[in-house]
Amino acid sequence: MICATFIGDLQAALPAGLLLLGVGGTLAVALLFAHQTLRVEQDPRVEAIYQVLPHLDCGACGYAGCSSYAKAVLADPTLIGRCSPGGPAVAQRLAAILSVESAGSSHPIRAVVHCNAHTMDKTYYGNYEGIASCIAGNTLTSAQACRFGCLGMGDCVRACRFDAIHMVDGLATVDYQRCTGCGACAKVCPRGIIEMVTFQQSMMMVVACNSKEDGRTTRAMCKAGCIGCGLCAKQSDIFVVSDNLSKIDYSHYRHDEGTDQAMAKCPTKVIIWRGC
Predict the structure, then answer these.
(1) Range of the domain at 253
(2) What is the DSSP string of 111-150?
(3) Is residue 161 included in any domain, yes or no?
(4) Are residues 63 and 156 in the same domain?
(5) Do 84 and 179 have their domain in common?
(6) Over the stretch 170-181, which tens digit does the pLDDT of each residue have?
(7) Beta bridge partners of residue 198, listed in sequence order
(8) Are 137 and 247 in the same domain?
(9) Which of 134, 158, 227, 272 has its CA 20 to 30 A from that of 255?
């Protein structure tokens, strides 16, 4: 009796099972056909380019990750050289894959900190007891008197994946032996004191200040600040003074007698060398 009932149930369910099997098979064939007819063939050079890249997905090239950059550089070889962590070696290999002569800029991009004030050089209005974060500290005047200098709470240190920046006596300090130029430190600094600079030489001149206060106010707040006197600009045209602050125009950077004189004559010694 039980066996007969089971056979009856099986016979009743068989048409439905066959129908589902047929529908599933038809969909599978349709998907396979769509995959074969609608797929976009990828240039094998995209994979070759991707394998050359360091796979850090740091975004220094301006793209979301190495995969996106690989596709972009295939479409536009002038983008070769944007991979700062890879440096000239990767640029040369990309140029070879794409059979182009130019391998982009051979100069590495590195971070420079536009501040030279250590803890002892800074004036404080009060003791900051908030969250140990530059972003949080930047919202309060009690963090330190200067509104433009390094807060020293290490957001840049935590952002760096290469252990290339450290806090030294309250000041963000770059280890140029480790810096890859990924730009992560510059992106998280709430005061914008970290700039990514093309290092044409192993050592580059930097105006280590970001204060836009007048000279008198700067002197009252910091022992290592630019007072906007303009003596540097009189020695070399790579220095431009604006908003009480001297800056270097790195698009016209050069090292010569004029820049040496600018460094020597700076009354607060805020023009310094960065690099290794």
Answers:
(1) 109-275
(2) EEES----GGGB--SS---S-S-HHHHTT-GGG-S-SSS-
(3) yes
(4) no
(5) no
(6) 999 999 999 988
(7) 109
(8) yes
(9) 227
